[in-house]
Design the sequence.
């Protein structure tokens, strides 16, 4: 109950230095936590796997959060990798969310599904190099271009799946900020790019004939776990576009709204978003992304970046509504990280995406899911059903 | 396996229209999902609670995501509500994360703990009102100011805990964008502010003597689930500052770094962040926030907003390092939403924060946790131990 | 010719310490400049006024820049202060500019003119106050609210025309950033708000019972001479909206374009602007603003802020094009600064705006001018006449 | 006096269709303006050149704005092109400005001058191409890369000095936004890049084997005359860094401030700037840039972009103050545009920069000037002399 006096001895969380990912070690911490805090933790300690499977995912493991999963679908996707219908697991505690996405999926299916396209794919680490003055920074930049092949070789020696594509340079003051851009196979790639770039920097520090005053492996230019204009412009993870064209009458039939009203509301939202300085002129892509991320073992903190989006819609002369959402920094994996954990893997398997070769298909499904949620919430707002729906489905006190 | 032909009949996820939150309904969906997708879902279907408890949290419930929780601490907080030591449950699949926060907590405890202060508290809904021209928008704005008391009364009739504090006005074109700012007790308050603002708008539409062409209950000016400058400036949820002053020698002892090197790196990060257009000049607050959010039943999609931050640090003449992080839109609850779900409630109880009266204490603990993670990762970067640590702890293939 | 060795004695520009704003003093500098640089300066030294009139506008006066003025119009304005037709002096060296604005004015006049509305009016200075910790910053903020009347009195003792309207507070770390918002009569008001706020701060420093570690009279929160989201949201100078509804057929008749094509192009520009992180989703308001500013003696460096804009357009069902431009931080004066200089005053007189009582009228004329230029360039782009026009009118080598 | 009834016939500004750039044509307009507006225009009509020289710079010429020029200097520059001392003409009506820059130049000269470096050079036009869906946009992007040489050839046939360096691609929805980046010799290059890109687009439209639904020559991605993150990241015009290291004692001797206080204030400004969403974390670079731009015939509306800046400063252990300002989109010319007008050319000649080969030297001088102004105003703020100085020098009513 947080009453321990601060002045006392530090009482660390118990750890088994030999093997800390065992039932025993977990139980010892459970007892410790119960004793210290008075919480029962009966549910937290109910998990269906051996702690050993989480060895690379967690330290000081004590149990699990059980996050409810609802099934939405069928979601019809016309992607390059994802083709056909999917039932999408959404892990959330926000009432209405699954129902809303489900409703959007129904609408879009009737309109022929979501077309998805991956436009770009690049994960980065962004070291900064400091020099005596700007002039040396510029010289170094030229040298870096000339020696790209060697740098690439040094980087790639540390990884099987990471491939260094290019190094972008941005200068300010006596500093060169770089973005080392990689493709990373089916992994999200933050760790492998970190390791590869550290190796590349080590090579650079040894081989650059000039004087580098200092380098920092990260400098707020990859903006990991943060939203930034540079990532919205230059991509982080997958850049995915989801598109659909919805006949006007479908909005009236399925959504009790209309494409005209949606389009007018979109114009207001575009203006509001521009004036408010938002990173997403859409409605709530973070909802769908977060729910899929939790279910499938993604690094959920990447919602910070992955929630940025560009919505572009058109009211066609015949009343059709063309709607697209571009996610410029969708960070996903089907291999590594939390994707191999028991429930998470099952959820990826439900989508046919687990493991090697699944990541682009998965990215397309996420983007398609997002589009459905956008149309659903957008319609609810113009139909003034939004508050009502939350009142109906989202009350649980 | 997503092989269903799109052309066929839509096969919806099974639902029990009478009561869909039962073991039977969940099992029916489980079978459906297994059949359709081939996934075993043995772990997803292992949960320790009755589906009825999740009635307001999820639709089409099929099981749970089990997200590993690690225990970090003790975290020493000198807040106004949170005082003393806490063991913080972090739900994540990112290896190294718990260890890194734990290390930061150790450092900061030796330095006397984290001081936390809640600077502001306001949750909003942002309707837009459209008029014939800008002039009528301006007139309406004046009327709205004059009639604030009536609007407030209309809004508050729908809620016990929501209190309308003020209405901010922002004009562009023939549109008035408003921010209806509420305090919302221990709830995060997105739903109650939606409902209250809908009622307020209904009152306005009935009582405004002029002509309102149209209104939209939301207009991208509350930027729910999105990061925006307006929220960073004007607060969404809690605005919390966490501060600590760390003796220079502690960095050398505990972190193998130094306050001088950290401070220099901070300058580079500030510049990098400014140039990259990032919403957070710190390191990775999203990591800690997300992990606490998942563990404690917060609306995790709010990481989109809650991950914005302002870091301000100073190297004092004696080598001490003053470090602060300001979270301008931290959206938290200790009541409602997912906070009452079994594991989530237990985790809140572990912090002594569950239920009424806990939300400010909880906000302080989150902010304090963030600060520890910032110092830990910041140190790892300057000590060049960062990649190594991930290599050691974050491998799980 | 910049050949003076740096190592030598510093040779300052000659000054007459008694009265430096005389023909003699100017001539002495002219000779100095000719000798040092080899430039003839025959034109620079051709001016039609006594240097004494520029005493408060320039130091080390040597002559003038002669910037060509073209006359555009008639511009038909339906403002609250500006009503009727105006011939607008545009000082520029960019060929095509005057012709383009003139063409837009013709189009808009046929459509009934531009409606203009001033939505807000506030000039600010933004001191920052530093405290031991965030908590003291918050306490100070409460005190400042309570003592607003005294602060206002202290501020207003320094100025006749400045009135302190309110003080906005923004917190981060242990710092309170304030915006002291004033109305400033017909002056732009940067100096008077500086002086008034300095006096207010002096009063605060003397009277605050707590401890203020330090204050800074400016802290990058008024963003004088810089563009910022806070000014776009909260206004700096005048917030003006200009609106017009143009019959579709007029675009075809006058502009060889169409409202449909303009509207589609607008959608693309909105998206491009959002993704590029621009401070103005319109075309080129800076052109018209700068040209009027130079002609009329405004502080031209304020183009940095004044060039921000929000464009909002609608294609009406009948093909009409509703177009509006909102200038959120238009900084103008008809009194003080450069407005009393000879040519500048004449240009203000041409618009009937010189001196007391003219500033709102002037702001409306500027905004109306901007709108005409937007429609003209927008049309030229969709009609693909843009490059041609520049080729025809903008060649002067 | 703007009393003409709007309902009447349009009375256009008189023009001589044969040759409109003559004394007669100008006089006719002068009479017209006098008659219509009642303004004397005696000073506006006092200019020292033949209207014919302004043929490519202005339409409907009626006279000139006489903007006072003050001479600041000597400015000591250690650039690559600009080397030695310069006396800089500043055209402004803001009292104090010249004195303040002059003071900064004195300080910096004593410290050994300003080091300047041009980091990048690229002027762009940004066409957008629309396709049926995102997939076709991506295909087109690949084709564009493959056919760069042909596109370049088509572009460069229209210009002698413009060289197409590369084409950046940014995708969103079914649109490819491009940045065609050119070097443009001594011209600013907006017109030549427009013309060259139009030719390139014409070639593309003729030769692309797929279907391009539509293209727009500009799409808010070059953000001409507007400030944007993309230009701050990717450069528009010249990217210039100015640097100086000032001994601590000089601040005390010359500025009555200290490097410690300046550095602390800089930290606060960095935070304020980050929170306010400003495009420049420095003080007032727009002041110096605008004043030089007006004097030397630059396109002054480019202050919108050119006023963006990154300031990076360091307090060195010995008390020295390293200060740098990076101007990422400085748009300058020494040839074409207004540079050949009489007073403007003389001012460029004063700097030894007029005509071919001068543009980089000129860019360096501008950046060096900016740095001096930053240090001067920064010092005035911390010394609390700022308001006083304005009171002394900036009063002219």
Sequence:
């Amino acid at each position: 109950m947080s009453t321990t006096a601060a002045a006392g001895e530090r009482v660390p969380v118990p750890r088994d230095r030999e093997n800390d990912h065992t039932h025993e070690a977990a139980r010892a911490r459970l007892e410790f936590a119960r004793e210290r805090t008075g919480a029962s933790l009966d549910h937290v300690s109910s998990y269906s796997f051996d702690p050993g499977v989480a060895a690379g995912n967690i330290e000081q493991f004590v149990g699990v959060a059980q996050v409810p999963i609802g099934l939405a679908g069928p979601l019809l996707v016309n992607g390059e990798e994802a083709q056909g219908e999917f039932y999408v697991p959404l892990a959330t505690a926000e009432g209405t969310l699954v129902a809303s996405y489900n409703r959007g999926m129904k609408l879009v299916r009737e309109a022929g599904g979501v077309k998805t396209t991956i436009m770009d794919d690049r994960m980065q680490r962004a070291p900064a190099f400091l020099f005596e003055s700007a002039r040396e920074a510029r010289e170094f930049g030229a040298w870096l271009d000339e020696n790209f092949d060697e740098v690439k070789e040094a980087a790639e020696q540390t990884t099987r799946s990471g491939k260094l594509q290019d190094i972008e340079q941005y200068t300010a003051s006596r500093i060169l900020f770089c973005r080392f851009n990689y493709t990373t196979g089916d992994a999200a790639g933050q760790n492998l790019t970190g390791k590869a770039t550290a190796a590349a920097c080590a090579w650079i520090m040894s081989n650059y004939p000039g004087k580098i005053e200092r380098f920092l492996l990260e400098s707020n230019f990859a903006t990991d776990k943060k939203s930034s204009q540079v990532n919205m412009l230059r991509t982080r993870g997958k850049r995915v576009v989801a598109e659909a064209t919805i006949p006007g009458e479908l909005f009236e039939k399925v959504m009790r709204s209309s494409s005209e009203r949606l389009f007018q509301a979109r114009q207001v939202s575009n203006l509001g978003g521009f004036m408010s300085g938002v990173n997403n002129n859409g409605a709530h892509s973070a909802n769908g992304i977060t729910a899929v991320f939790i279910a499938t073992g993604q690094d959920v903190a990447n919602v910070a970046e992955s929630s940025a989006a560009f919505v572009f819609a058109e009211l066609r002369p015949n009343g059709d509504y063309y709607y697209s959402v571009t996610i410029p920094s969708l960070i996903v994996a089907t291999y590594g990280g939390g994707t191999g954990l028991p429930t998470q893997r099952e959820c990826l398997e439900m989508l046919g995406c687990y493991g090697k070769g699944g990541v682009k298909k998965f990215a397309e499904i996420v983007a398609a899911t997002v589009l459905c949620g956008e149309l659903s919430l957008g319609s609810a707002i113009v139909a003034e059903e939004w508050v009502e729906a939350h009142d109906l489905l989202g009350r649980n006190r």
In short: The CA atoms of residues 126 and 222 of chain B lie 5 Å apart. Chain B touches chain C through 28 residues (CB under 8 Å).
